[in-house]
Amino acid sequence: MLVGISTGDDAGVYRLNPDLAVVNTVDFFTPVVDDPYTFGQVAAANAMSDIYAMGGKPLTALNIVCWPQSGLPGAMLTEILRGGADKAQEAGAVIVGGHSVADEEVKYGMAVTGVINPGRIVRNVGAKPGDALILTKPLGTGVLMTAFKRDRLPEDFYAAAVKSMVELNAAASAAMLKYRVHAATDITGFGLVGHAAGMAEGSGVRLVFEESDLPLLPGALEMCRAGMIPGGGKRNREYYGPRTRVSDEIADAMADLAFDPQTSGGLLIALTEADATALLADLQQAGNLDAAIVGRVEKPGDVLIELV
């Protein structure tokens, strides 16, 4: 076992031989959108994200399904599974089976197995003072999907959020492996601050984020100001708030978005400033115009995270 649960890393890694290791992860959740096919795509992209965050390549997946015994048509489940299968195919992975249980609430996701070079594992620890921080997707899916559930989200904002959630982190992962990455993680349910706090604590450093540099999904700030704060965001702020310093100049809505739980969010990558500049250019040249350098790594202090 090369990577276990000791640092709360994104996936486990088990070495088979000096040149090959397997990387394992699992994730499933309740629907975040109404369309079954889209939900299947989002859930699959989210499940495979942990593999990409560590620099691995997904190979196989097992479907995990929780489904009511009555009340929903089987065609709906077929569409969810089709969405997951199409996203797995896009990733170059094969669905080899799965398991279903009766449940009053619909849930879907995957257990994913991939491969990784034991010498090129990217951990969520190892960030160094002086590093720059790159975020590869904009924030705001939690707020936007909360607005959607409350019938308050305009169609164009919804479309932008879905586009972001179904996007694989494959290209960002491949791009970062061209450089000496010190640490990386994907941003999901604990929000930017929560996952960054894990990186900071495990690395023995402090992460400082520039509020003005944080990329946001269209409508995220507007919906946040309208009070569309998900329960997960409130819990994240309650838990990670004491270890976070927020500048008095930052509006509450922007702070809320830093704690906003993401579904299938981007990668947070720590590497030298020179490499970060080069990686950002690669990402933008490849069409990822939302990627941005969002902060820096500093020596440890009295908090893990600062928003300035």
Identify the notable features of this structure and list them briefly.
Phosphoribosyl-aminoimidazole Synthetase, Chain A, domain 2, five-stranded mixed beta sheet, single chain, seven-stranded mixed beta sheet, 10 helices, 308 residues, 37% helix, 12 strands, globular, 60s Ribosomal Protein L30, Chain: A, alpha+beta
Shape: globular
H and E order: EEHEHEEEHHHEHEHHEHEHEE
Helix content: 25-40%
Task: Outline the low-pLDDT stretches.
Answer: none
Total number of beta strands? 12
Supply the helix-strand structural class: alpha+beta
- In which order are the strands of the major sheet placed? 7-10-6-11-8-12-9
- Average pLDDT, rounded to a whole number, is 97
Q: Termini, distance in Å?
A: 39 Å
Short description:
The protein is an alpha+beta fold and 308 residues long.
Structure report:
The termini are far apart. This protein has a seven-stranded mixed β-sheet with strand order 7-10-6-11-8-12-9, sandwiched between helices. A five-stranded mixed β-sheet has the order 1-2-5-3-4, covered by helices on one side. A hairpin with a 2-residue loop joins strand 1 (12-17) and strand 2. By secondary structure, the chain is an alpha+beta fold. The protein is built from ten helices and twelve strands. The model has no long low-confidence stretch (mean pLDDT 97). The protein folds into two domains: 12-120, 2-Layer Sandwich (60s Ribosomal Protein L30, Chain: A), CATH 3.30.1330; 132-307, Phosphoribosyl-aminoimidazole Synthetase, Chain A, domain 2.
Topology:
Blueprint: E1 12-17, E2 20-29, H1 36-53, E3 57-67, H2 74-91, E4 94-102, E5 107-116, E6 132-135, H3 141-149, H4 155-166, H5 170-176, E7 183-186, H6 191-203, E8 206-209, H7 220-225, H8 231-240, E9 244-246, H9 252-259, E10 267-271, H10 273-285, E11 292-298, E12 305-307
Parallel strand pairs: 3-4, 8-12, 9-12
Antiparallel strand pairs: 1-2, 2-5, 3-5, 6-10, 6-11, 7-10, 8-11
Helix pairs in contact: 1-2, 3-4
